[in-house]
Amino acid sequence: VSRVLPGMQSAFVQIGLDRAAFLHVADLWGHRNGEDSRPIEKILHDGDRLLVQVIKDPIGTKGARLSTQISIAGRFLVYLPQESRIGVSQRIEDGVERELLREKLQRVLPPEFAGGFIVRTMAETATDRELAADVEYLGKWWKEIQEKAKSAAPAALLYQDLNLSQRVLRDFANEETTRIMIDSRET
Predict the structure, then answer these.
(1) What string of DSSP letters covers 61-130?
(2) Could you identify which of 18, 35, 74, 100 might form a hypothetical disulfide with 30, taking C-beta atoms 3.0 to 4.6 angstroms apart as the criterion?
(3) 164 pLDDT band (50/70/90 cuts)?
(4) What is the average per-residue pLDDT within 148-175?
(5) d(CA 83, CA 55)
(6) If DSSP states are collapsed to H, E and C, what string results for 20-69?
(7) Phi/psi zone of residue 155: left (φ > 0), alpha (ψ -120 to 50 degrees), beta?
(8) What is the pLDDT of residue 165?
(9) What is the predicted pLDDT for the residue at 187?
């Protein structure tokens, strides 16, 4: 934290970019979930180290927008390590289907697994095995982030979402995929 602004209930945080990033009190995890209603100057101080996630990239003269609520996207799930509930994508409107997806995920979760999830739309057709694999994948990422955070210097990048081509592979390649062809000709 490089500067706390009580009047704006926000702080500027150095994350290794040219401009400091912006963190509003509403984007602090404890504040967001109702556990901590103190003003930002009672929560953060200059020099504090935080684990943050960029929720909005820098634009023009504005720095990135941050949150302390971490989310990691997988193929079928979004993992929320600080949460305990299971939500379902709003695109799945059928209440029965939403409950079935929650139950399906709860069946494959290891008993010791901590954290919450958002079930993505693609999970409607996922098998138990595919959901379990996504849970394992996301759990490994979170453990790796936590390990890196223990020894990382301030403003270190601990995790970056996959690029477009990698996300396409994650989301669409599966056990039935026999080959992937890439047309790399320049136009």
Answers:
(1) TB--EEESS--EE-SSEEEETT---EEE-TT---HHHHHHHHHHHHHHS-TT--SEEEE-GGGGG--HHH
(2) 35
(3) confident
(4) 85
(5) 17
(6) CEEEEHHHCHHHHCCCCCCCHHHHCCCCCCCCCEEEECCECCECCEEECC
(7) left
(8) 83
(9) 59
**Segment 26-36, tens digit of pLDDT:** 999 887 777 78
The dihedral over CA atoms of 109, 111, 114, 118, expressed in degrees to the nearest 10, equals: 20
Q: How many CB atoms lie within 10 A of CB 87?
A: 14
Which SS3 state, helix, strand or coil, does residue 179 take? Answer: coil
**CA 155, CA 158: separation in Å to the nearest integer?**
9
User: Is 72 in contact with 78 (CB distance < 8 Å)?
Assistant: yes
Whether 135 and 126 have beta carbons less than 8 Å apart is answered as no
8 Å CB contact between 19 and 25: no
Distance CA 53, CA 107 (A): 29
The amino acid at 107: R
Q: How far apart are CA 23 and CA 27, in angstroms?
A: 7
Sequence-distant (6+) residues with CB within 8 A of 172 are none
String of DSSP letters for 138-178: HHHHHHHHHHHHHHPPTT--------HHHHHHHHH--TT--
